[in-house]
Amino acid sequence: MNGILIANFPKLSCQFTPRRLPFVCRYYLFAFWSNAGGRGGIWLRRILKMIFPLVRSLGGFSRGEFEFRTPARTSVIRFNPRNLEYSQIYNERIFKNGYEIEVSALLDLLLPESGVFYDIGSNWGYHVLMTASRRPRLNVHAFEPAPETFQDLTGCLQQAGLAQSVTCHNFALSSCDGTAFIRVPDHINSGSAEVSTAGGDAPITTRRLDALDLPKPDVIKMDVENHELEVLKGAVETLRSKQPYIIFENKLNLADLAKMLEIFEFLAVQGYRFFCPAVLRDPGGRNFLLPCNWLPSADSDRLALVPFTTLTRLICPPELNVFACHESRLPELMETFQAWKE
Questions:
Q1: Which is more confident, 299 or 155?
Q2: What integer pLDDT is reported at residue 96 of this predicted model?
Q3: For domain 5-14+94-176+209-339, is the CATH number 3.40.50.150?
């Protein structure tokens, strides 16, 4: 399949709205994302960034609040401001267009009503909350190894009334069963947490997906900071038996391109094809493909899947949420998407 595929963006009815931001959240926004100009403003932000870890450790005990609204209910959820991944809700500077709109759209378009969804690297549960609330019969499994972040995940699900709808696993999926460490390189952002065998911030358990007695997934979403290949090596039987759709994060690594591309070579051997999600916009009858961090602004905007290969990965965006579809499921994919005719 060499052509671009398109589908209408689903109208997502779930919405996250900040209600109360503690001082540490507002401090973080100003220090790291403020537009305050001038030499004085630049130096002030540098100083504030330097002392932010101390502010975070001392001022991260008061709770923030956000509303999670669905057609069925509105929940007020108290959150831990030490976890900066909650900025997906309150950082309008970079998330005013929505957080990972392509991932949300793909999950909504492709998840069966009573299927099985694995969110591997769930953090506090943004996509878990969205999928579980929109599909009551969906079997959701959330994997989050970091102890404090796992508490954020289970706490949000409990407050949203979804604790019975999601099975949470406090271990890391990997290529072997054993132990490792979770490590946050900058000691600040839980979203950059890595699985490490050379020490880290906290000990964790690792499990192979194929060794778990779980229902096979229809869709897998992975965001595990360069550990994706190890997860898939421990899931070869699952990939062969179920051929799940896979959405995974992939970042440009010029220092080690071979390592960066290994996951594509591995999945290609398993029979997978790769797509770069984009926004198709046609102002004035002229078509443009835009990165997915642009919010669709009109009903005519559509979600596009642009095929690429290992050879052409480097001309795609540096940070990319890849959509991988097994070749046996391409006809099924075409029931939702259609070939784009320019």
A1: 155
A2: 79
A3: yes
